[in-house]
């Protein structure tokens, strides 16, 4: 399965990544490259929409954790939006639901993070 990443720019320091497909050992480098590029480009708020993600493995979790760390070190944040129940369960089992801010919708995420869409 391939990974499709669509990027939207609601404002200068915020990006929304809509991810579709599987985030696994084969596709994770593509996501990592995109997150690093955005962080190095000055993005402070990264909203990752997982509503169309069908599968997430430990490699994908590692990429998301790395992105979160990178953005928080730059006084920003990476938040997750709309994961399917089976994907959300992965975060709950690993305890990462206590590390990541996870929201139901992009609007909820923007409101809680204080950014405008």
Automatic annotation (TrEMBL):
Q: Which residues form a coiled coil?
A: none
Per UniProt, what is one Pfam family of this protein?
STAS
Molecular function terms from GO: anti-sigma factor antagonist activity
Q: Which InterPro entries match?
A: Anti-sigma_ant, STAS_dom, STAS_dom_sf
Tell me the Gene3D superfamilies matching this sequence: STAS domain
Which PROSITE patterns does the record associate with it?
A: STAS (PS50801)
> What sections of the protein cross the membrane?
none
Q: Which residues form the signal peptide?
A: none
Q: Which family does it belong to?
A: Belongs to the anti-sigma-factor antagonist family.
Q: What name goes with this protein?
A: Anti-sigma factor antagonist
